[in-house]
Design brief:
alpha/beta; 5-stranded parallel beta sheet; 13 strands; 47% helix; globular
Length: 337
């Protein structure tokens, strides 16, 4: 598979590639380019040139383009899910669910974008301002680098790329090295739907090289990164050199709380899902277990017994579909996620 730079499918300028291996089978799925610094610089330059033109496209037209993208996602749903399954090692049921989250997220961001109004301060609100009306309006930041992790690549693509594009920014996507294929396809579909060349690009390669080049490039206006705390600290340092905006979602320390009047059996089942879904590779997975002293022994025994009974055939099967999760939050008891 290729990178997408300035609307064109391209290899690395030196021809180097990285193997994408199915972690469940150990078999080669495909290869992607290992971008050079020249490739990264070119992508950022193209983004800088495209961003003002993309920003001038009215919001309602941007929405129409992203809705056409969702039509393409629908047409390619199973193929995208199979790609995600193969490169990530997820069960196909979970891969299909993650692809199904794309239209949920994109439609939500599209609707929100149509209501990002400015503000008006009437004359006379402050002394000396009797004849002045102040108007504020929202403007795009410019070029945004979206660094996306391996665990839920499509969900994070939705959350980073959709709002950035709708706000008039140009986006350069940096997928995880291990599973970049699905995001390469999604980026190509966005361009096919009508996002102009250079406004949404994807470059592939190691985070230690390509990621660093992107995060230290002077032409970048913001970096949004989901990853480890260590990488987040390094990114913040790089961003400080150019006063670049950052949005960092890093390693969490999420609490799972069981009080004295809690349902222990239910808590055990919640633990299995909250800690072990996606083999524990979830940003908000339960990591600290705070249990009332009077329930510790019972809880611990039942947890050990439940975990001991798990096998590949009985792994957690609850799917974190955004629509379903939202409905649960409205109808069910409060839950630590």
């Amino acid at each position: 598979m290729h990178m997408l730079i300035n609307g064109e499918s391209v290899d690395a300028s030196d021809g180097a590639v990285i193997d994408v291996i199915n972690p469940a089978t150990g078999k080669l799925v495909d290869t992607v380019p290992s971008a050079t610094q020249e490739d990264v610089t070119h992508a950022i330059s193209c983004a800088q040139k495209a961003q003002p033109a993309w920003a001038s496209v009215p919001v309602h037209e941007k929405v129409d383009i992203l809705l056409r993208f969702l039509d393409l996602v629908h047409e390619n749903h199973e193929s995208l899910a199979q790609t995600l399954c193969a490169e990530t090692g997820k069960p196909i049921v979970e891969a299909r669910a993650e692809i199904s989250n794309i239209p949920i997220a994109f439609r939500a961001f599209c609707e929100r974008a149509k209501h990002l109004y400015g503000e008006t301060i009437p004359a006379g609100m402050e002394a000396g301002q009797e004849h002045h009306v102040l108007i504020t309006r929202r403007e795009p930041l410019g070029v945004i680098v979206a660094v996306i992790p391996f665990n839920f690549p499509c969900d994070l693509f939705d959350q980073k790329v959709a709002p950035a594009l709708l706000a008039g920014n140009a986006v350069v996507v940096k997928p995880a090295t291990d599973n970049p294929l699905t995001l390469c396809r999604l980026t190509a579909l966005l361009n096919e739907a009508g996002v102009m060349a250079g406004a949404c690009q994807i470059v592939t390669g190691r985070g230690s090289t390509v990621g660093n080049w992107l995060c230290t490039a002077p032409g970048v206006n913001a970096v949004t990164l989901t990853g480890s705390t260590e990488v987040g600290i390094e990114t913040a340092r790089h961003a400080a050199d150019h006063l670049v905006h950052t949005a960092l979602e890093l390693g969490g320390n999420d609490a799972f709380i069981l009080l004295e009047d809690g349902d222990v059996d239910l808590a055990v089942e919640e633990l299995v899902w909250g800690r072990m879904y996606n083999t524990g590779q979830v940003c908000c997975a339960s990591k600290r277990f705070l249990v009332q002293r009077s329930r510790v022994e019972e809880f611990a025994k039942k947890v050990v017994a439940r975990i001991s009974s798990l096998s590949r055939a009985t792994r957690p099967t609850r799917i974190p579909n955004l629509a379903v999760s939202s409905l649960r939050r409205q109808q069910a008891r409060p839950r630590s996620r």
